[in-house]
Amino acid sequence: MSLPLVPLPASVTPAKGVAFTLTDAVFITGDADAAGVLHRLVLTRTGLHLTAAPGTAEPDSAAIDVAVDGDGPPESYRLSVDHRRISIRGADSAGLFYGVQTLGQLITRSSDGWVIPGVDIDDAPRFAYRGVMLDVARHFHDVATVTAYLERAASLKFNVLHLHLSDDQGWRLALTRRPELTARAAASAVGGGAGGFFTADDYRAIIAHAAANHMTVVPEFDMPGHTHAVGLAYPEVAAPPAVDGWDAAGGPAPVAGEAYTGMGVGFSSLRIGAPETDAFVDDVLTELAELTPGPYLHFGGDEAHGTPAEDFAAFVARTSRVIADLGKTPIAWHEAGAAADLAPGTIGQYWGLVSPTDGADERARAFVARGGRVILSPADAVYLDMKPTADAPLGLTWANGPTSLERAYSWEPGEVVSGISEDDILGVEAPLWTETVRDLDDIDALAFPRIAAAAEAAWSAATGSADNRTWESFRERVGALGPLWTTLGIRFPASPEVAWTV
């Protein structure tokens, strides 16, 4: 039986017949931050209060020692478990944090109490960027919900939280330069639900909590499409809704100046080339850059069907240069690759299918040709808002759905976009759009257990290149995480594709 480790570590060597027994008498020594994370994790999982030791534990005492030693690639760690000692060594603080998360997955209840099996693990990530995205625009999610979700993601070694902060239904971040955005454009949501927005202090709190969990926040203001809400606040920068031939997706038709509560996309656009629009874009991106310590700003660029192609190319080229001039790296959805004059180094986020259609792969390759890299988010594999089964009460099905756990697992990042190398792939991101998602329970119901499949695609070796990097092994390993997820308060559905440990 495989050890219950997700994502699969680079190297795992079990020590048969060896186990470390967890009791209140166990000491934690070493790095204070990592020791605090471990203490809280063990307490939640087992109810045990481990003892913090100010220095080195006595030679004959049971102890867990956690430390940064600077050895190995970024975010890597080594974990060793024998019958009296556990050692976790990280190349940096992030690696040490991930080593602690791995140890948490190994905690098992036995007839003799809480135990950790003997093992030696040497682990490092495949990709530098391992992201989850949460859409807070279709339905608003408050700080508590966002931080709970990022904690869940960090436990699976994700290191990026992408926040989709604006869309046709609402604008979700208060800006002093453009106060009308939240005064007039934040009170609506899909289905007519209540909206909401983050204050600057709320946003800073999310960033701080993410940093404590070794995650970088990537904010997104989606432009030039997905901007109907902008017109509620600043009508001079918004074009009239382009509804000819538009698919309403079963919802109401958009009306200029009125809040939009449907799910249809592609009808809205900014007024490209207008001085008022350029000033608006400059204002919102400048303030977003000031609020955001991380290296990336995402400016959307997807589904701009209401924007003429020439105007679209001019807009995304200018906007990418604005972001670069602010000292940030621009990210855009793959459609922006159609523009010939993107700022060099712009990152493209591919959201097409595992088998690309309609030239999506060509547009993704264009980012690489201009010195950028690609984030892979194939919609029919890692869009967590797709229904997991046909009868699931939440989610959508447009991306060849439903998306089973096996399909979420059985794809290989290096094989999606032909003509790009492993080095051209910045990483993998699993988006969660929230047309049908209203609270944390809904998030859990759609994200789990498929988020674990995305975590393995982002962290672990290529599919089939290592023992246990297979669907058969994954479904066994993820099933054994059921007790841990339950004690962490995650309301995951018991997927019938998995034999869950009770």
UniProtKB/TrEMBL annotation:
InterPro entries: Beta_hexosaminidase_sua/sub (IPR025705), GH (IPR017853), Glyco_hydro_20_cat (IPR015883), Hex-like_dom2 (IPR029018), HEX_bac_N (IPR015882)
Residue span(s) of domain Glycoside hydrolase family 20 catalytic: 127-305, 312-461
Swiss-Prot/TrEMBL keywords: Glycosidase, Hydrolase
Reaction equation(s) it catalyzes: Hydrolysis of terminal non-reducing N-acetyl-D-hexosamine residues in N-acetyl-beta-D-hexosaminides
Domain Beta-hexosaminidase bacterial type N-terminal span(s) in chain numbering: 4-124
Family: Belongs to the glycosyl hydrolase 20 family.
E.C. number(s) listed in UniProt: 3.2.1.52
EC top class named in words: hydrolase
Protein name (database record): beta-N-acetylhexosaminidase
Gene source species: Microbacterium plantarum
Pfam families recorded: Glyco_hydro_20, Glyco_hydro_20b
Domain of life according to the entry: Bacteria
Gene3D superfamilies xrefs: Chitobiase/beta-hexosaminidase domain 2-like, Glycosidases
